[in-house]
Amino acid sequence: MNLEVIKQVRKNVPLIHHLTNQVVMNFTANGLLSFGGAPVMAKAEEEAHNMASLADGVLLNIGTITRADIKAMILAGQAANQKGIPVVLDPVGVAATSFRTDAVNEILKEVKPTVIKGNAGELANLVDTPWETKGVESIGEGNIAEIAEKVSIKYQTTAVLTGKTDIIHTTKERITNETGHPLLAKVTGAGCLLGSILAACLTTDAPIEDQAYTAVHFYGLAASYAAANPSVQGNGTFIASFLDALSRDPGTLESVIT
Amino acid sequence: MNLEVIKQVRKNVPLIHHLTNQVVMNFTANGLLSFGGAPVMAKAEEEAHNMASLADGVLLNIGTITRADIKAMILAGQAANQKGIPVVLDPVGVAATSFRTDAVNEILKEVKPTVIKGNAGELANLVDTPWETKGVESIGEGNIAEIAEKVSIKYQTTAVLTGKTDIIHTTKERITNETGHPLLAKVTGAGCLLGSILAACLTTDAPIEDQAYTAVHFYGLAASYAAANPSVQGNGTFIASFLDALSRDPGTLESVIT
Amino acid sequence: MNLEVIKQVRKNVPLIHHLTNQVVMNFTANGLLSFGGAPVMAKAEEEAHNMASLADGVLLNIGTITRADIKAMILAGQAANQKGIPVVLDPVGVAATSFRTDAVNEILKEVKPTVIKGNAGELANLVDTPWETKGVESIGEGNIAEIAEKVSIKYQTTAVLTGKTDIIHTTKERITNETGHPLLAKVTGAGCLLGSILAACLTTDAPIEDQAYTAVHFYGLAASYAAANPSVQGNGTFIASFLDALSRDPGTLESVIT
């Protein structure tokens, strides 16, 4: 973990423009606020370019995407590419329907993401590898390192594949992460909020592999730390504890894990 | 309560496709995850049919319905009917405006719901019985058993009428339920989440009256159990405690109520 | 603080129709329920007029506004003006993009708000005063009393300018408020929920300056009270504690502050 990444986020409070799904907007905004960033979540296609141009980073998450959203996402992503700020693409449930597959293809034709983040089923779909999925969940098994590598090569990007083991694959190297907690799977949008945390970390001046690994590693530590709180008795109390934990220093989070 | 219903949900983790209102999406998804199901909440009309076809059950909730949503709901409901999976219809605030009344009529012309769930004011409206309402709340009084029966006959469905006493009326019999807690009335979407829990229970192979009663009875028990937690001091702490409680075994919930 | 305002809200349970942003709908509804009001959040332009006509007050919040929303807001605001019920306008992030500036201008041409509520950057924009903003946040400094006064004169309304010090400016007088807590800035929609609480207080028969000051003063007290709860360790636990606190008596909230 590169502590400089966390420090810079908290010093600069990067403004992240989110075009994300309606299920997780509130949780994502509160999670990013706790971590140290500043969320904005404008939706209208008329202001997508302008709002992204004001931001330090952009998150595109297709969880509840409609045709109007696709256009707004492309405009926001293009503005980010023009300005040279990071774009995270989270192709939620891309394998579930052809509408989603087409939407992601449309976006990827017009926007170059800095990071593509998803579970194994989502990233496998992007490189035409068969994988078992259920709605927006990945339930298949296979060579996740290979999937991540293929995504990084095909899209010339950094792939962040989340799961029990997370794989970060830049165009040059692979890093694995083992932090995390089973309760995250019981919280809707746990993956979506990570996309926002990633976008914030990508606004710092550390190397991309440090930015991505720090985001993913810190996120998993925060989950373990939160779950260890004696007040946590299920996903409801965990959500509150996890939002709290995202504001902690990395050292504090680590102290409880050992 | 038929414990087999809860057991089967937790074993099979049914995928419920939600076309529901924007106020309650996050709470509903977390509630269903805690209970043991898997939520998906795609909105686009282009994928409504496909997503419902992948699911084990469908929830249609009109709380913030727009014209585009009506079409998506009909497509999802029809896909569910074709596949033979359960459909729950929650006609939130149907009596409030003619737009809602028309929307529900349009849906009911095209989709056959397995369960229609609502408060007394909503169900009374569906059978043209006068009832006092306030926004999306029911504040009138009258013969709720009769209302539920009329809905079950008119729509050849199971009616679940929620209130201080809940009435479950299949086409053949009536069951009443008394579990619940006043704090549920202070949580937005408490009724909406019950629709999702109902949909999950309807995916099991128990008789419909067992499925519906178990969902409603368990839900009320979970509310009482959650409210008894000493950490609960209002609706904010109750929400967290209630989400936690939805993951408990029925026996655990019952132990605290006596 | 005029205790009669709180008492009347809790006795009458005013129905507030919200046309508000998707990030904060759930939090706002639960906050208003805890405080003592009744939320409704219909979105469709087809029912905007009808739903507002059934309500006791209307909140217009442009946080995630789209073109369709602008029309619905105008219809709801006009219905409220015709019926003589209060309208609160919250021009979230109005300075960020020309789309927002135009949207607010369109609304203000057709609707007369009882209160315009916003941070310094938002209200400064409405009176063409330069101010530094970042996304939907105000980060500039300047004469906030003058900004509030200008808004009240230009729009012949009551301006509520929120910040470390809050300014309430009716067309006749200025009141300042100092209650509040830094954790509010870590909760998305803290300002948005205040708009809803304001709308509820405006339905009472107290003078406008009492209604507005009571809403703002009570809200800040609730935040301090909530933050003093030993369970609060960050924004997640604060959200739950704050929702709880909104249901308390003013005397209870004050007892902890000293």
From TrEMBL, chains A, B, C:
Chain's gene name: thiM
GO molecular function terms attached to this record: ATP binding; hydroxyethylthiazole kinase activity; hydroxymethylpyrimidine kinase activity; magnesium ion binding; phosphomethylpyrimidine kinase activity
CDD domains: THZ_kinase (cd01170)
Residues annotated to bind substrate: 41, 189
rRNA processing found in the keyword field: no
Record organism: Oceanobacillus piezotolerans
GO cellular component assignments: cytosol
Cofactor(s) demanded: Mg(2+)
Family recorded in the similarity comment: Belongs to the Thz kinase family.
Protein name, UniProt field: Hydroxyethylthiazole kinase
Function as written in the Swiss-Prot or TrEMBL entry: Catalyzes the phosphorylation of the hydroxyl group of 4-methyl-5-beta-hydroxyethylthiazole (THZ).
